[in-house]
Design brief:
single chain; mainly alpha; Rna Polymerase Sigma Factor, Chain: A; Arc Repressor Mutant, subunit A
Length: 181
Amino acid sequence: MSLNQLIENCKNNNTKAQGELYKLFSSKLFSTCLKYSRNYAEAEDNLQDAFLTIFNKIGQYKNKGSFEGWLKRVTVNTVLQRYRKEKVFDIINENTIEDIVEVDIEEDSLSIDYLLNIIQELPDRYRLVFNLYVLDDYSHKDIAEMLNINIGTSKSNLARARQILKQTIENYKVAQSAQSL
């Protein structure tokens, strides 16, 4: 069965087609959920919510552009909606951008699993902005619109995320070199 036929069957609420679509894209979308979630269990919940949204909104897909890109956008928006409901960004609304310091994170000796783990440990508002900007290449303007914050807050949260990650990595490297003595 072609992807277009599978999509059409899903639009007609065919549960077998929905199961096939889930099998086809769940692992890719799970990795997207994992980037934006606090932990593995939350990513699983977010994936389920995303697929519910996908099946509810699949009629809106007009066969223009990448279907996988559409799935990813729906998934990211579903996860972000959870955080908007939790009012993650109402806690601190940082408007100052004067104190933003660009921080380069060296990944040379760090595993992907370690990097993913420390990104997941970031406070929600920092993790979401970091992932949207660094990993998914959204602009600060787009992030501000998606998260209902201002552009300065997006920039400030990104800078703070980078600072936290840099400090965490430095502490890790110090601990590693101390163990090798």
